[in-house]
Write a structure and sequence with these properties.
The chain is an alpha/beta fold and about 130 residues long. It has a single domain, classed as Response regulator (Rossmann fold, 3-Layer(aba) Sandwich), CATH 3.40.50.2300. It has 5 helices and 5 strands. A 5-stranded parallel sheet has the order 2-1-3-4-5, with helices on both faces. The longest helix has 19 residues. The radius of gyration is 13 Å and the shape is globular. Keywords: Phosphoprotein.
Length: about 130
Amino acid sequence: MPATSVISVLDDDPYVRAAINNLLESRGYIVHTFASAEEFLSSTDSSHTSCVVADVQMPLKTGIDLLTQMRAQGSVTPFILITAFPDESVRMRALEAGAICFLGKPFVASDLMQCLDRALAAGDRTME
């Protein structure tokens, strides 16, 4: 893992944000947290992130909507989508939109870390 990997965590639940933040920081990542897609998009961090971990169900703009918008704008930033409501149709929409992983809450820390490894490897390939 490069020391400069910045992970942006988007979830409207402050407890989920804090838990993911603590996990990722304990593994040496730089973590920025956001309560909404709009907050993320209005920050300078949105263009300097190595990976986005976003909740599917957020007010105003869902994680899938954010992913679709960023892809339409030419961003290749890897996305991991998480949700408390992991049904198959949502999973398919997330993967078709370009998500690297789709995890149902609650998830095991090792599953998130495996997804993050895949996402960062995919991001490295797009930088070459």
